[in-house]
Write a structure and sequence with these properties.
Order of helices and strands: HEEEHHEEEHHHHEEEEHHHHHH
Structural class: alpha+beta
Distance between the termini: 47 Å
Oligomer: single chain
Radius of gyration: 20 Å
Number of strands: 10
Strand content: 15-25%
Shape: globular
Strand order of the largest sheet: 1-2-3-5-4
Number of helices: 13
């Protein structure tokens, strides 16, 4: 991975053959960019860049740049771009979780200036978040999470690199807008929300700190946004991308997010405890046996309720979203609502 001295491009137009030649260390004579992941990338802009030039060049790379001005402001507040850069600099290639290879990971003078030049995984099968994971894909992802989580138990990252799950912006920005976003969800969903979940949503800002405080007690390094569309599969292998929400907390938070929002309801129903047990067994096999099931199950239920917030608050911008993105947020919330009801997640908050 190269740390560049040639400046941070402010747009894809500045990702020129000359710039690419400098950062890749190979002569690039031509570069043609096309926008990708327009319906799933909210915080950043992703481009596939086709390269021509000297020997040793990959046919394509993916270039990741900051998103809209609104997205940049949010990512600066959350430290999202910095978190991803630090993950690729410090963790990728060391922890036993497959990731896209990175050629360049660099930031500028402000927190909203960054560039990633990455391996293009176009030959891999990118999971469809709207359709949901298959059970085999979910189990592969759980194994990858166990590897990352267990590795972090014996390879602690220096303090200050990644925040805890309970960092100030969550309480200051996300919790106050939940009620408005929930109303936007209720206007659009086609499911009947169970009364217990309705009551929970009405008290979300009051109850969420219970989850934040409990889930922040463990120092595990989390992916933080282990969505199906961040997972790529090929020949039994998996690679994970998008580490803008990497943080410290309870491993069951990653597990609950993956299972309750990544799996279709019909695939997940009745399997929550079994999948959590599989994760804990894998975690122990990879060197971390200090996570009792009872503690992990409470963490899982708390995370299931709390992490419903992520797709819900995205609906604040529903009117401006592409249709698929809007439907994705509704579907993920529908899945979370079903899980909260079925595993009685609300009881874990008492």
């Amino acid at each position: 991975m190269t740390e560049v001295e040639t400046g941070i491009p402010s747009s894809i137009e500045e990702v020129t053959p000359g710039w690419l030649s400098a950062v890749l260390g190979h002569t690039v004579t031509g570069a043609r960019a096309e926008r990708i992941a327009q319906d799933s990338g909210f915080a950043s802009l992703l481009y596939r860049v086709w390269l021509t030039g000297g020997t040793g060049l990959p046919e394509t790379v993916v270039v990741k740049l900051p998103g809209s001005q609104e997205a940049r402001g949010a990512m600066e507040l959350l430290g999202g771009y910095r978190r991803e850069l630090e993950f690729y600099r410090r963790i990728a290639g060391r922890a036993p979780m497959g990731t896209a290879g990175v050629f360049v990971a660099e930031s500028g003078s402000s927190a909203s200036e960054f560039v990633l030049v990455m391996e293009d995984l176009r030959g891999w099968d990118n999971a469809d978040h709207l359709a949901g994971l298959t059970m085999d894909q979910a189990r592969s992802a759980l194994s990858g999470l166990a590897g990352l989580h267990a590795w972090s138990a014996t390879n602690p990252v220096p303090a200050g690199v990644f925040p805890g799950l309970d960092f100030p912006a969550v309480r200051q920005v996300f919790l106050p807008v939940f009620a408005t976003a929930w109303a936007a969800y209720l206007e659009r969903t086609r499911i009947t929300v169970p009364p217990g979940v309705t009551d929970f949503a009405a008290r979300f800002a009051e109850l969420a700190p219970v989850a934040l405080e409990t889930l922040s007690r463990r120092p595990t390094l989390l992916h933080g946004d282990i969505r199906a569309d961040n997972l790529f599969f090929r020949d039994g292998a998996m690679k994970v991308v998008d580490f803008q929400f990497a943080c410290h907390g309870a491993g069951a938070a990653d597990v609950a997010y993956l299972v309750t929002q990544g799996l279709p309801v019909s695939e997940r129903r009745g399997r929550d405890q079994a999948l959590l047990t599989e994760y804990l067994d894998d975690l122990a096999a990879q060197g971390d046996s200090d996570y009792p099931f009872d503690e992990a199950w409470r963490d899982y239920r708390l995370a299931t309720g709390y992490l419903m917030m992520l797709p819900v608050i995205s609906l604040l911008g529903a009117e401006a979203m592409p249709e698929r993105s809007r439907q994705l947020c509704i579907t993920l919330t529908d899945r979370a609502v079903a899980a909260i009801d079925e595993i009685d997640a609300v009881a874990a908050f008492s």
